[in-house]
Design brief:
196 residues; alpha/beta; five-stranded mixed β-sheet; 10 strands; 41% helix; 23% strand
């Protein structure tokens, strides 16, 4: 009868709403687990810490460092590595990989962590732009931290006066290759890493 159809319509809508709610919760939980796993793997590659259990996504969706089944307080440098690990996991598991732009990514890190990070980051995104100052990476350190074959150009900001700076190419005799590849949608693109 017509009355039965009308009375079941709200029930049907409630059922559909519950299905979507359960599906989104299941997807959120699976992505949370995958991000946590990938971030922990990346942290293991970047850190000099010999012993840690994992990174754990906390209630505010930040990452906590777990050692001996306990959350530990992180140094500022460790917080930076944890944040990079989270960015890597989100970029890796996202629907599309995006260019990564970083400003002063190594200010609080020692040389070993800097080397680990700079060897990992070019594989973590389609294009990488890093803004560093001479206190982070000097010209002499470039060979240590960067794979020359993966760098498109190096630029520097040259101060000309109190109110004027200019961007200039600063290759210092390095020669670079541009890597050509076909993107996800069949278009040809260049994989270039620019260091500022």
């Amino acid at each position: 009868s017509k009355d039965v159809g009308v009375s079941t319509l709200p029930d049907f809508a409630d059922n559909i709403e519950n299905i979507f709610k359960k599906a989104s919760e299941k997807y959120r939980d699976s992505m949370k687990s995958a991000i946590q796993k990938r971030a922990s793997e990346t942290f293991g590659k970047l850190t000099t810490e010999d012993k840690f259990d994992k990174l754990d996504i906390n209630s505010s969706y930040g990452l906590s460092l777990i050692v001996d089944n306990q959350t530990v307080t992180k140094s500022k440098g460790a917080e930076q590595i944890v944040a990079l690990s989270l960015m890597d996991a989100i970029n890796y598991l996202g629907r599309r990989k995006w260019p990564m732009i970083m400003d002063t990514p190594m200010g609080r890190l020692d040389n070993t962590h800097r080397k680990n990070i700079m060897h990992h980051l070019p594989d973590a995104s389609t294009q990488l732009a890093v803004f560093v100052h001479s206190g982070e990476i000097s010209k002499e350190d470039r060979d240590i931290y960067f794979d020359k074959s993966r760098i498109g150009k190096i630029y520097k900001i040259e101060r000309k006066s109190t109110y004027h700076s200019q961007i200039e190419v600063d290759n210092d005799g390095w020669r670079y290759k541009k890597h050509r590849y076909f993107g996800a949608y069949g278009y040809e693109a260049e994989r270039i890493y620019r260091i500022w």
